[in-house]
Amino acid sequence: MAERIRNMRVTLYGTQGSCSIFPSAAERQARKDLSDAHLIEVVLHDALRRRERVDSIEKILGGPVTRKRLLAYRDRFDLPSPRVYDGWTTCVRVETPDGHDLIFDAGSGFRNCAKDLQVKWADQPERTLHLFGSHSHNDHTVGFDQAAVCFDPRNRLKVYGNPQFLRALDSYLGIFSRKLDSELHGVQTPIYYNVMPATFEAVALTGPDQSSAKYDLRAIDHALPKPIMVGDTQVMAFEVYHPAPCLAYRVDHGTSSFVFCTDHELRHGSDESDPRQQASVAAEESLMDHCDGIDLLYRDGQYLRSDYDGISAIGSSSTVSRLDWGHSCIEDIQEMAQRCGVERTLIGHHDPNREWSERNAIDDGLARWCRNRAEKVELARADMVIDL
After folding, report:
1. At what angle do helices 330-340 and 356-370 cross, to 10 degrees?
2. Angle at 238 between CA 337 and CA 91, to 5 degrees
3. Distances from the Cα of 188 to the Cα of 12, 52, 145, 184, 264, angstroms
4. Contact 339/377 with Cβ under 8 angstroms?
5. What is the distance between the alpha carbons of residues 232 and 92, in angstroms, rounded to a whole number?
6. Confidence check: pLDDT of 44 > 90
7. Low-confidence winner among 9-13, 29-33, 117-121, 320-324 (lowest mean pLDDT)
8. Rounded CA gap, 77 and 143, in Å?
9. For residue 53, what pLDDT is reported?
10. Cβ–Cβ contacts within 10 Å for residue 20, how many?
11. CA distances from 161 to 71, 138, 174 (A)
């Protein structure tokens, strides 16, 4: 039986940036080599510790050689598991003790998340999902029409986001307006509202002088910065800096706090008077205000500073400046986590060109940086579950 949720349970279903990937042959081999090296080391230590003469595998295993006995022998040792970052794009789930499910972004990870939701809901009568979108880019919406929750008529999906995010979903699915542009129908997917029997409701999170009316989304406008209440959970949306309008979210329940911030750039331009630079710095200051003293932060850190400046390449890609691509540097996040006293920070939106061995090396470096510090910073990995 799962442990009782105290304030929030945060599950990561997708932490990949830009596009979904599958582990390469080189990555799979690197993981295997690491596991094999650990196993050989502990087996040799075990052999050296034995005082009696061991002259057969059967004697070591305590019986005939079978797969079951071999695995049982392996499991005697506390072997570290290689980190698995996975390749699904952004999707994070928050469960609350009063029974609500909040999803942040519908990247390709949303497909697996939806499967778990269908199992959890089983035959319960109240089947409402609150889905909060960051922005309209494809890697944050691509999982929507793959999600089992959209194909069950018992389900109600309340979808929150800025008007551009809601329009991105509606333009090719028609789930809010209940109509399709004839030129777009079938271009991105054969799926559309007529084959998606769940109930979809749009809540447009709007700033001053904004309205969703021009998009004909049948949406309810919710003016920011007014918080959103889902049962006893407060969700506060705020803008961050990205080429497309993008929202981050602070979630508070009981004594715990979580900030979800993907696709945000702390811009490192040479001209401090550049309006883009000023907007970026202002957004970073707002983000820090929302992160002050929180328990958990999920934040986009797609680059190292040398990648961002075009000094180093990522994987087999070329060296190129990534100024104004809309993503932050890992070093920026380390500094912010320390300044804001964030208890635990998970760095996501991994670059698809970064090999597993380099991600692993970055994680090792972060672990060394965290020694003797109260703040814990690490790379986010799909299937992580954090109880707050």
Report:
1. 30
2. 75
3. 26, 67, 10, 8, 26
4. no
5. 19
6. no
7. 29-33
8. 39
9. 66
10. 17
11. 48, 14, 16
- Residues composing the chain: 388
Alpha-carbon distance of 107 to 374, in angstroms, equals: 32
**Whole-angstrom distance, CA of residue 381 vs CA of residue 23:** 13
Structure confidence at residue 79 (pLDDT): 80
pTM: 0.91
**Banded pLDDT at 2 (limits 50, 70, 90):** low
Look-up of token digits 């811009």: 267
Place of tokens 């970064």: 354
Residue 97: asked if its preceding bond is cis (omega within 30°), the reply is no
Burial of 82 (0-12, 13-18, 19+ CB in 10 A): middle
Q: From edge to edge, which strands make up the β-sheet containing 233-240? A: 228-230, 233-240, 246-253, 256-261, 296-300, 344-348, 376-379
**What pLDDT is stored for residue 187 in this prediction?**
83
